[in-house]
């Protein structure tokens, strides 16, 4: 029971918690409920996280044009947010990994800076593996 509860704490680290989530978390009744229903609490937290992440993602994608900046892919399920000037895989991991929410929040707070672009998964990982997306390599 307790181990599961702690897993839930680790899933959403404090630094990426939004104000709304903190408020929700302060509620004593909620905390009791979370302790007694770790599985449900876990599921609820990840639903909240995913919903929030998706809302921010939609906002960002909309702003940058709903299209892969390399190949023109329009299917939103294939699209990711990419940091244009950074070739380090570490930074890219931040964007598509566990720091996603934090990065999204930053982009929105900074009012959609130019250094980000939309890429599809193909072009994103193409850039990851070959530094330049194979679409852009002309022999
Ligand atoms: Zn693409
Ligand atoms: Zn490409």
Describe the sheet with the most strands.
2 strands, antiparallel
Show unreliable segments. 1-10
Strands of the widest sheet, in order across it, are: 1-2
Spell out the helices and strands N to C. Answer: HHHHEHHEH
Topology:
Elements (H helix, E strand, L loop, with lengths): L1 H10 L7 H8 L1 H9 L1 H27 L14 E5 L5 H8 L3 H10 L6 E5 H10 L9
Antiparallel strand pairs: 1-2
Tags for this model:
mainly alpha; 7 helices; binds zinc ion; two-stranded antiparallel ribbon; 139 residues; 2 strands
Please explain how this structure is put together.
The chain has 139 residues and is mainly α. It has a domain at 52-139. Helix content is 59%, strand content 7%. It contains seven helices and two strands; from the N terminus they run H-H-H-H-E-H-H-E-H. It has helices at 2-11, 19-26, 28-36, 38-64, 89-96, 100-109, 121-130; strands spanning 79-83, 116-120. A two-stranded antiparallel sheet has the order 1-2. Helix 1 (2-11) packs parallel to helix 4, helix 3 (28-36) crosses helix 4 (38-64) and helix 4 crosses helix 6. The longest helix is centred in the middle third of the chain and has 27 residues, at 38-64. The radius of gyration is 18 Å and the shape is elongated. 15% of the residues are buried. Mean pLDDT is 80; it is low at 1-10. The structure holds zinc ion (2 copies). Residues 70-71, 123, 126, 133, 135 line the site of one zinc ion (ZN). One zinc ion binds next to strand 2 and helix 7.
């Amino acid at each position: 029971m307790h181990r599961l509860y702690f897993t839930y704490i680790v899933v959403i680290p404090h630094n990426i918690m939004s104000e709304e989530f903190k408020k929700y978390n302060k509620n004593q009744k909620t905390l009791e409920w979370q302790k007694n229903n770790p599985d449900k609490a876990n599921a609820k937290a990840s639903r909240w996280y995913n919903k929030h992440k998706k809302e921010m993602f939609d906002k960002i994608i909309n702003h940058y044009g709903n299209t892969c900046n390399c190949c023109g892919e329009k299917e939103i399920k294939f699209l990711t947010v990419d940091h244009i000037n950074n070739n380090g895989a570490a930074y890219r991991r931040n964007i598509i990994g566990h720091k996603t929410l934090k990065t999204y929040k930053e982009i929105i707070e900074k009012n959609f800076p130019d250094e980000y672009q939309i890429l599809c998964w193909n072009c994103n990982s193409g850039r990851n593996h070959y530094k330049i997306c194979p679409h852009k390599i002309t022999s």
